[in-house]
Amino acid sequence: MKMANISTINWLFVCGLSFCLGGIAVLSFMPLSSDCICPLKNPLSSFSGGEQLSKNLISPQSGHKMAILVPFRDRFEELLQFVPHLTKFLRKQGVEHHIFVLNQVDRFRFNRASLINVGFHFTSDVYDYIAMHDVDLLPLNQDLLYEYPSSLGPLHIAGPKLHPKYHYDNFVGGILLVRREHFTQMNGMSNQYWGWGLEDDEFYVRIRDAGLQVTRPQNIKTGVNDTFRHIHNRHHRKRDTQKCFNQKEMTRKRDHNTGLNNVNYKILKVHDLSIDGVNITVLNILLDCDVNKTPWCDCSGTAAAASVVQT
């Protein structure tokens, strides 16, 4: 597939289900039924993006490869800022990496944790650690090293003493680096968290239960106001904090039943995309929901009913 170079687009608007230039579709993030492919065992060998990963790297220092997993839905203007910023930041550190945008295209509520599980399945044959990375959080302090986590456990880049918004001790959201074997050991993340929030708190309990511990960058001289740039506009995009059915009760508990081993999904399309000369990979991901187990994946019931009809 020919790459769409976003740096050449002077103005961009939504046209049907595709991003368009002057009425001509240049990129579609939405699925077509004929595009459906099954989850891939060794995905990077089957599309051209895998052949071009090294072009974005300079002087790899560690021999390790990091997959940056970015859960995503309707954040295109943030992605345009995120990709060049983070790439420049990591190039200075010589971190071998590639950005994978995990684009949820079903009609259920957003599920950050399940998307990360899917991204891990897609990349784990090639990359030996992942960065679970919010698209709206840009690191500013070059002393924040995206290095291979220690054997102790995950490396939390956006610690509570540094994050611009969240400051409680058990916080592990924003940017968390996890070794491949540790993520597998914990069975990934819970698939029960539809809507915004709490999935990272449940993951903290998984870390603890696995006998691992969270480490954080040391001797960082900046603080909550100048370590990161938070580009989320809460007035433009309101977070989906609705709680329906028995969601509030169930999502306050440790989930021993779901995770990496039973996330239910299809990858509908793999896109190679270039933003300001940086090659990234976009996965169009269709998540499935068992409404008998987690009816809060669709508080309105509309998407769930449509899913049943399609099935």
UniProtKB/TrEMBL annotation:
Pfam families: Glyco_transf_7C, Glyco_transf_7N. Signal peptide: none annotated. InterPro entries: Galactosyl_T, Galactosyl_T_C, Galactosyl_T_N, Nucleotide-diphossugar_trans. It is a single-pass type II membrane protein. Its main location: membrane. This is Beta-1,4-galactosyltransferase 7. The chain crosses the membrane at residues 12-32.
